[in-house]
Amino acid sequence: MAGVIHEVFITPEQSKAGIEGIVEASNLLIERALVGKFDYLWLVQADVEVPVNTFGSLHGLDVDVAFGVVPRHDDRNALICGFLDEKAKVWYLPRQAVENQILSGWVFASGCILTKRRVLEAGVRFRYEPGVGEDILFAYDVQKAGFVAKVHGDVLCGHLPEWPLLLFKPKILDVGCGHRPKGDVNVDLFMEATAHRTADQRVNDDSPLDVRRIPNFVQADACRLPFRDRAFGKVYSWHLIEHLPKPESFLAECCRVADELVEVRCPNGDPNWKYGLDAYGETKPLHLYRLTREWFEERLKAFPGWDWAISFDYSQSEPYEIVVEGYRKDVA
What's the confidence (pLDDT) of residue 121? Predict the structure, then answer.
């Protein structure tokens, strides 16, 4: 983050092994943060990998203690995360219950913790009790002292050696996200105002994208996406393909970076339907193509590794949108 003074400090080898050693190291880091007059202490255990923008996501919760989430060593879908009561009894949650959620109340998590200075100044420390995790006890003491904690379900960390971050694909890539992003990662070419995003494309009454409010925004060309093959579980795009000079190249990119699913939506270009026309009854000037079911059926033959379904969205009492859904055949 620009303008932030920070220090990366790795604790030396501790005199105690196991949990007692982790407690000793964590409290050493607390003292280092207090002496250094830092506003926050961000603790990440040595076997935890954090995703991009973890600090920004946790800092954005603006609570006394913010937790990322880490899978257990023996099960990637079982997280060291959940709720506890006022007697420190815990209830663990599966990954599916935590993803895309912000958990609040009496919560706990482990391995990735951002703590405000005032919690440390109040004397809250890590402690050891046989049979109870040190992070659980820390979360319990934090909330018992009246401080607020939250768990950020989208900060899914890797846990080495079993679960490196490479195994956790972002779920959705939204290509051409505009002002209404729907992805875990969101791509658009135009950060400035553009008539491509207006109802009447003859008049540019759009506003610039506020990329600070778009999760994991990437400025990129939809036909040259800067991602590795099969990087995302799903690629989604709404009303973009008809704007592109090479729609076939865009479909190829979607198939390249999607591991499981592709969903592309666009105006129904069938001449029997008026959707996609402007107020003058003409094709919108920045719509380079009026795409039809037949157009997609022909072009999708170029991707035999996918099963394709083409349907229409009737939510406006007519088949106003074409919905193209692809399912990769070789997904285990």
Answer: 96
pTM: 0.54
Provide the percentage of residues in the chain whose pLDDT is more than 90: 54
User: Within the chain, which residue ranges are assigned CATH 3.40.50.150?
Assistant: 169-328
The 3-state DSSP composition of the chain as helix, strand, coil percent (nearest 5) reads 25, 30, 45
Please state, in angstroms and as integers, the Cα–Cα distance from residue 286 to each residue in 105, 198, 201, following that order. 49, 10, 7
For CATH 3.90.550.40, the residue range(s) in the chain are 18-165
pLDDT tens digits, residue range 255-284?
Answer: 999 988 999 999 887 765 555 555 445 556
- The secondary structure of residue 11, as a DSSP letter, is P
Out of 1.10.287.70, 3.30.530.20, 3.40.50.150, 2.40.50.180, select the CATH number for domain 169-328: 3.40.50.150
At residue 212 the predicted structure's pLDDT band, cuts being 50, 70 and 90, is: confident
Q: How far is the C-alpha of 43 from the C-alpha of 115, rounded, in Å?
A: 8
Query: Which CATH number does the domain 18-165 belong to among 3.40.50.720, 3.40.50.1360, 3.90.550.40, 2.60.40.420?
Result: 3.90.550.40
Please spell the DSSP secondary structure of 160-182, one letter per residue: TTTB-GGGS--SEEEET-TTS--
Pairwise CA distance, residues 78 & 71, whole Å: 6
Exposed/middle/buried for residue 245 (C-beta within 10 Å: 0-12, 13-18, 19+): exposed
Task: Give the span between the Cα atoms of 240 and 194, in whole angstroms.
Answer: 13
CA distances from 238 to 162, 178, 190, 229, 244 (A): 37, 9, 15, 21, 13
Distance CA 239, CA 39 (A): 44
